[in-house]
Design a protein that fits this description.
Number of strands of chain B: 10
Oligomer: heterodimer
Order of helices and strands of chain B: HHHHHHEHEHHEEEHEEEHEEH
Helix content of chain B: 25-40%
Number of strands of chain A: 10
Structural class of chain A: alpha+beta
Strand order of the largest sheet of chain B: 2-3-4-5-1-8-10-9
Radius of gyration of chain B: 21 Å
Helix content of chain A: 25-40%
Structural class of chain B: alpha+beta
Shape of chain A: globular
Largest sheet of chain A: 8 strands, antiparallel
Strand content of chain A: 5-15%
Order of helices and strands of chain A: HHHHHHEHEHHEEEHEEEHEEH
């Protein structure tokens, strides 16, 4: 966690070698990219708000990683982090986002009408559909670095913006620290409640400080549109519903997001965005769209097929258990979502999910009947 | 944990009221003392090494505390913390250390010849004896704030100093990060091994950053003298052995400590000490002597006596389970140690343990025979 150390005035008296972290047992993107030379070059830099290199990397130093899962190992403390520390973060981004180059441009497309189909995924297989993303508010530092005053200001603005929503978006805000037992139980039953993170990856970034001050959950009365305030990002925006109508979910997602953005812009606090990185978020893995569009879908046969992984790879999709990341699938039900975040637009990513899931259901049906799917394996997207 | 937030340069754009933490659900020494006025007064200060008020208090904000156990809720990042933030720390110290005033002077006495008796605690009752303390090396920041370079320099100095000890104190250093499985198992079997802390109180202070870099355990060949390097303090020094010869344990403790101190002085490094606070350590609760002297003693009868709590209080002793702080007694065996740290010398504190345990064992023998202990009740020390 970016600690006192990270702004310790004595550390520059020690050589870069003496201060350079021991990354010999580490396996994360930061450890792959951070050579002694880069450490030397960047160690006396900081962003205008005071975020240092040691702040950026502390989470990766404290969490060596997993032999099979490549974690990111670094975070941003503000918008400028991605510029001031580009010598470290550009290679991390390139490695994490499929070769995305420092000169590449990212497309943003939140026009839901550009999505083709997506309203007819077979509800016998697709149990639910969901789209989520994150947003950061210009002028405030990010959760690893923000002060209590900043965090509270973000909460205040968010409540104001969300309260102004009406129609299908009319809803209510539940601050974590004032929640009644009844409200808490309801939010748990709805699977909406988020709690103080326990993952050392998240805690090490500093985002758990001052919990639960200025954290909360807003959702619409219909329980189909949900916003988390001040968790891992300033805002996490989620649209979801039972069944396979991803088109409707994406519509609500885009409309809601744009309504919220308009209110923030009115107060001269738009969302952090640039044409290279798209939407700027705390974790470099969420840059670009920050979007994960997914379904819970029954694929008991396909998931046992030798080519399942290959199919997912080619469709640019990933699988998770129905508890979310790092959980196992139960009863043949998988969480299938887009693997990419940066370099493809929102519409493109949701299109991949829609088309890919449609194909996989066809494959599932074929396998149910004892047929072969060899002629259905798609080309690499 | 003192995070990025704690050196966030934008926070001064917010008022003290906006930045002041919500301590309404908190029960720790820091929360009792830190009013909004005090926060306003201290919030723009920093020690020469850059430790801020938010660094000092973050652990107390993130750990609201327990209704029955009063935690400290603040830490020092360097020697100057106790001076720069005295308006907060003086009242915390006064509350924690029995009314110790800012003008009070602390006595240091590490002359084991001043201890009377202590070599004859009944081994049928006293199973083991142990004395521990901590030491900080002047010129380096403390574990919540030290950089990797500083921590490694502390380790180098410790290894060099300890490496030159001989006779009864001759021993070996085991760096945490290079330990073989065999060495690790032996250290576990000896009850010497310390691991990365899991307590949120400790983690929140920032002391676990970069684990296990520059952490290690040194012990003598006889396994009666042990030093922890870079855990919660720069050094933790422990002398221990089976049985009730506290005099010998204290003898070794003083001899070893004094030798180590002179070895450091030879290299131009002193321990942090001043005549008001005694030895300066990370946690305000360990100021003064930093000393906890204790025995594991069988008191199945006395511990069930209704006056047990009262007796311990009057003797200025505290009880713990044999697993250490926050554990329960097993089989009537208790860890009995001095309750004080500051305002009494090392000899004073060990004398209280020796005299107090002697009395408790006498009481136990009386109760075993079914006799009363009323005439043995001590006055308040």
């Amino acid at each position: 966690m970016p600690f006192g150390n990270t702004h310790n005035n004595y550390k520059l008296k020690f050589s870069a070698e003496d201060e350079y972290p021991d990354l010999s047992k580490h396996n994360n993107h930061m450890a792959k990219a951070l050579t002694l030379d880069i450490y030397k070059k960047l160690r006396d830099k900081q962003t205008p708000s005071g975020f240092t290199l040691d702040d950026v990397i502390q989470t990766g130093v404290d969490n060596p990683g997993h032999p099979f899962i490549m974690t990111v190992g670094c975070v941003a403390g503000d918008e400028e982090t991605y510029e001031v520390f580009k010598d470290l973060l550009d290679p991390v981004i390139q490695d994490r986002h499929g070769g995305y180059k420092p000169t590449d441009k990212h497309k943003t497309d939140l026009n839901f009408e550009n999505l083709k189909g997506g309203d007819d995924l077979d509800p016998k297989y697709v149990l639910s559909s969901r789209v989520r993303t994150g947003r950061s508010i210009i002028g405030y530092t990010l959760p690893p670095h923000c002060s209590r005053g900043e965090r509270r200001a973000i909460e205040k603005m968010s409540i104001e913006a969300l309260s102004s929503l009406d129609g299908e978006f009319k809803g209510k805000y539940y601050p974590l620290k004032d929640m009644s037992d009844k409200e808490q139980q309801q939010l748990i039953d709805d699977h909406f409640l988020f709690d103080k993170p326990v993952s050392p990856l998240l805690l090490a970034s500093g985002m758990g400080r001052d919990w639960p001050d200025a954290r909360g959950i807003w959702h619409n009365d219909n329980k189909t549109f949900l916003v988390w305030v001040n968790e891992e990002d300033h805002l996490r925006v989620i649209a979801m519903e039972k069944g396979g109508n991803m088109k409707e979910v994406f519509r609500r997602f885009c409309v809601g997001l744009q309504k919220i953005e308009a209110v923030f812009k009115k107060h001269n606090h738009g969302f952090m965005w640039n044409e290279h990185l798209g939407y700027v978020l705390t974790c470099p893995s969420n840059l670009g769209t920050g979007l994960r569009g997914g379904v819970h879908v029954k694929l008991p046969n396909l998931s046992k097929h030798a080519k399942f992984e290959e199919v997912l790879n080619r469709l640019r999709l990933q699988k998770r258990g129905t508890g979310g990341v790092d959980t196992a699938a139960e009863g043949g039900v998988f969480d299938i979502s887009n693997a990419d975040r940066l370099g493809f637009s929102e519409v493109e990513q949701v299109q991949m999910v829609v088309d890919g899931v449609k194909l996989m259901i066809e494959m599932e049906k074929k396998l149910e009947k004892g047929g072969s799917i060899d002629d259905m394996v798609p080309a690499q997207k | 944990m003192p995070f990025g937030n704690t050196h966030n340069q934008l926070k001064m754009n917010y008022s003290a009221a906006q930045e002041y933490p919500d301590l309404s659900k908190h029960n720790n020494h820091m929360a009792k003392v830190l009013t909004e006025e005090l926060y306003a007064q201290l919030r723009e200060k920093a020690t020469p090494s850059g430790f801020t008020l938010d660094d000092v208090i973050q652990t107390g904000i993130d750990n609201p505390g327990h209704p029955f156990i009063m935690t400290v809720g603040c830490v020092a990042g360097d020697e100057e913390t106790y001076e720069v933030f005295k308006e907060l720390l003086d009242p915390v110290i006064e509350d924690r250390h029995g009314g110790y005033k800012p003008s009070d002077k602390h006595k240091t006495d590490l002359n084991p010849d001043h201890l009377k008796g202590g070599d004859d605690l009944d081994p049928d009752y006293v199973l083991s004896s142990r004395v521990r303390t901590g030491r900080s090396i002047r010129g380096f920041c403390l574990p919540p704030h030290c950089s990797r370079g500083e921590r490694r320099a502390v380790e180098d100095l410790a290894v060099e100093g300890l490496g030159s000890l001989d006779g009864d104190l001759k021993g070996k250093y085991y760096a945490l990060k290079n330990m073989t499985d065999e060495e690790q198992q032996q250290l576990i079997d000896d009850h010497f091994l310390f691991d990365k802390p899991v307590s949120p109180l400790l983690l929140a202070s920032g002391m676990a950053r970069d684990w296990p870099d520059a952490r290690g355990i040194w012990h003598n060949d006889n396994k009666t003298f042990l030093v922890w390097v870079n855990e919660e303090d720069h050094l933790r020094v422990i002398s221990m052995q089976k049985g009730g010869n506290m005099k010998e344990v204290f003898n070794r403790f003083c001899t070893g400590l004094t030798k180590i101190e002179s070895l450091f002085k030879d290299k131009g490094h002193e321990f942090m000490w001043n005549e008001h606070l005694g030895y300066v350590l990370t946690c305000p609760s360990n100021l003064g002597t930093g000393l906890r002297a204790g025995v594991h003693v069988k008191l199945p009868c006395v511990s069930k006596h209704e006056k047990f709590g009262e007796i311990l209080k009057r003797l200025r002793l505290q009880k713990r389970g044999t697993g250490g702080v926050d554990t329960a007694a097993v089989g009537g065996v208790f860890d009995i140690s001095n309750a004080d740290r500051l305002g009494f010398s090392e000899v004073d504190l060990v004398q209280m343990v020796v005299d107090g345990v002697k009395l408790l064992v006498e009481m136990e023998k009386r109760l075993e025979k079914g006799q009363s202990i009323d005439d043995l009740m001590p006055a308040q020390k």
